[in-house]
Amino acid sequence: MHNRPGATGTIGAGAVARAAPDGYTLMMSSLGTYVIAPHLIKSTPYDALQDFDYITVAVQAPNVLVAAPTKTARSVQDVIDELKARPGQVSFANSGFGASDHLSAEVFLQQTRTDGMHVAYKGGAPAINDLMGSQVDYSFQNVNAVLPHIRAGKLRPLAVTGDKRSAVLPDVPTLTEAGVPNAVIYSWQALSAPKGLPAGVKAKLADAAIAAFKDAEVAHKLEDQGLEVVASTPEAFSAFQAREFQRWKTLIEERGITIE
Q1: Distance (Å, rounded) from C-alpha 245 to C-alpha 107?
Q2: Which of these, 30, 35, 114, 186, could form a disulfide with 60 (CB 3.0-4.6 Å)?
Q3: Is 254 exposed, middle or buried (0-12, 13-18, 19+ CB in 10 A)?
């Protein structure tokens, strides 16, 4: 197993795309690699729609809108009111431009017709630390990344971006419930391989991966962290990839988002 960080996961993805499609090289990566970076990084060393055989979307998790401890906001409407009162001055921390927390904020601002200030960090940890220190106002973070801080009372959750409430935050409304439409967003992790796997190898890998993530003990541990097991088939992953790829392409173009 190798971890190849850098350039929003595109370095590792490029290496996988060039590898032999023999079933011995696999990639576990987030939506950033599959459906976001291709629209933001011109020199992406792979074609996200052509260079991979999709095995399974393993897990997903909604993002959660969290407020810094010194903020008085107790609801999504409070945040919207503040954005309208101080356009362009209310800050949203993210783990880097183009990450799902950044794009979640972009969707939120788009759907509420408001204007906020994005503050990009080099990773989620420093963004969360500054949020807990009230250096920034709000953030859309992966539920699993901030759940311990929410439970400890260090961050206040206001809404989740899923199509239903999170099992680990049952008292927190969805953005849809809070009156913000078309803002359902999940962060997800998925398994793929270099394009061209023999059919039998692909089927064997998919069956094993799906069974592993659906294992009761594994699923329980993941769900305790706020992750939702998806364990989709290769066919379902392929269709999902196409939809997500187009969705984020459209948003990035409409919002004029660039990182280069």
Answers
A1: 15
A2: 186
A3: exposed
pLDDT tens profile 50-76: 999 999 999 999 999 999 999 999 999
Specify the residue for token string 């950033």.
32
Backbone φ and ψ of 94, nearest 5°: -145, 165
Residue 2 has pLDDT above 90, yes or no: no
Calculate the average pLDDT of the chain: 94
Residues 197, 193: Cα–Cα separation, whole Å: 8
- 62 Ramachandran zone, left/alpha/beta (phi>0; psi -120 to 50): beta
| DSSP SS3 for 197 | coil
32-52 mean pLDDT: 93
Q: At residue 159, what are phi and psi to the nearest 5 degrees?
A: -170, 155
